[in-house]
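ok so dumb question maybe but i'm new to this and my supervisor (M.) told me to 'just get the structure for Glutathione reductase' and walked off. so i did the thing. is this what she meant?? sequence i used:
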Amino acid sequence: MSDYDFDLFTIGAGSGGVRASRVAATHGAKVAIAEEHRIGGTCVIRGCVPKKMLVYGAHFAEDLEDCQRFGWKIDGKSFDWTILRDNVLADVDRLEGAYTETLENHDVTIFHERAEIAGPHTIALASGKSVTARHILIATGARPFMPECQGAEHAISSNEAFHLDKLPKRMLIAGGGYIANEFAGIFNEFGTKVTLVNRSDQLLRSYDEALRDRLLQISLMKGIEFKFNTIFEYIKPCDDGGYKVKLSDCEEEVVDCVMFAVGRRPNIEGLGLDNAGVELGEGGEIKVDRFSKTNIDHIYAVGDVTDRVQLTPVAIREGQAFADSVFGKGDPYAVDHSCVPSAVFSHPPIAAVGMTEGEAKNKLGAVRVYQSDFRPMKNVLAGRNERSLMKMICDAEDGRIVGIHMIAPEAPEMMQAAAIAVKAGLTKADFDATIAIHPTMAEELVLMR
Ligand SMILES: Cc1cc2nc3c(=O)[nH]c(=O)nc-3n(C[C@H](O)[C@H](O)[C@H](O)COP(=O)(O)OP(=O)(O)OC[C@H]3O[C@@H](n4cnc5c(N)ncnc54)[C@H](O)[C@@H]3O)c2cc1C
Ligand SMILES: NC(=O)c1ccc[n+]([C@@H]2O[C@H](COP(=O)([O-])OP(=O)(O)OC[C@H]3O[C@@H](n4cnc5c(N)ncnc54)[C@H](O)[C@@H]3O)[C@@H](O)[C@H]2O)c1
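this is what came out, is it supposed to look like this??
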């Protein structure tokens, strides 16, 4: 008989928590999970998945325009936001059901309520119930950071963007990162007049400069406006709807919607971490070692709450590694956080793996840069003046590829395959030895000069 109610109690049923709980259960552990909002977490409910569906929906705007040059005539086209919104939200419901079913099929006990740590092995549930567990996994994710300014309460975050009653005619999006650029692209394609407002003059800081410049240039061409080096002074509701917004060094303007996308903060408030003595880092993230263990031996944390790499596949890997290491029969293993590929689902998307040109020069000294700057065949026939860019960064000494960067239609799809080669340490010569598939955009990868 165990001294505890459960072998594992997971707080948070998002990407990391669900994977860890399911895998621990397959290893024979008695597992419970608590979720205060909806099973599936950020990615499934209000992140990657519904966002990507909106990206697909938005891209039809360009396809419907371009198709005329391919001989198609579509009269009377129009867009109804509520149809897309409701279909996306219905699919989110379906996915929540699928995630719940997976947990149930693995005999994971689900508590649909908030959980807090009440003692080293004790979890207090919002209903007043208290349970004990041999191990605790904190997988509570992150939430949007809402900066302070007068009237900030009138701004929405990405959470609300999926539920808007109607499409805003004019929208200000604060931020220059993933979410700001993705949603600027989405709403701009739907016909909203979008202005992206950033406190610095740099977008997507972690990406290669050439790609960032190209995205800015294409976004401007598509009609997105940018205001750099400015911050919000106030947001005031107008009597007849909309908001008066004042940005520093700018005239007051009226918009229908203000969205903040200025980063996400670990969900640790009121979690009772002090009751178990769990240590935090400087940014409020839970400090863990490479096995996702906190300073307390039986308490672990995975995903966004640890603020290592805020991406779903990383949270899933961390959850898997934790469950295998703690409950499996093999040796413990850690997740390798190097060379993680990523994408920004902007219009067009950006994708990257490894070092940027700047990072590689700083780290390696001598690098070779190969580049392909081309107009995709489909854009040529469509009369769309939008060029793609691919860059390959190699170590000048041995030709090893240390980074690949792309801005192109379907760049994330191409990058997933290319990332395998970079992770495996292949060289430019290995790529050159591979025969192209013609005609594709991806063939540029093996033809770069
Ligand atoms: C708009 C948006 C788009 C994104 N797009 C992408 C993308 O395209 N690709 C990608 O890889 N990543 C994307 N991300 C990031 C990705 O969603 C996260 O990295 C991922 O969901 C992190 O998983 P997690 O398990 O750490 O946390 P989460 O998935 O956030 O899960 C944490 C869960 O814990 C629950 N919780 C918190 N506190 C408690 C408590 N005390 N008791 C009970 N439950 C609690 C929360 O309600 C939540 O459901 C996106 C994020 C956003 C916001
Ligand atoms: N495609 C994807 O994989 C994807 C998509 C969305 C989100 N995400 C994840 O979610 C995380 C959060 O996304 P995000 O776009 O909110 O953050 P981000 O870290 O990508 O970008 C934050 C931006 O806000 C700016 N900023 C920060 N503080 C500010 C302030 N006080 N006032 C004004 N501007 C400020 C920063 O300069 C930066 O440009 C990302 O880091 C990413 O890991 C991933």
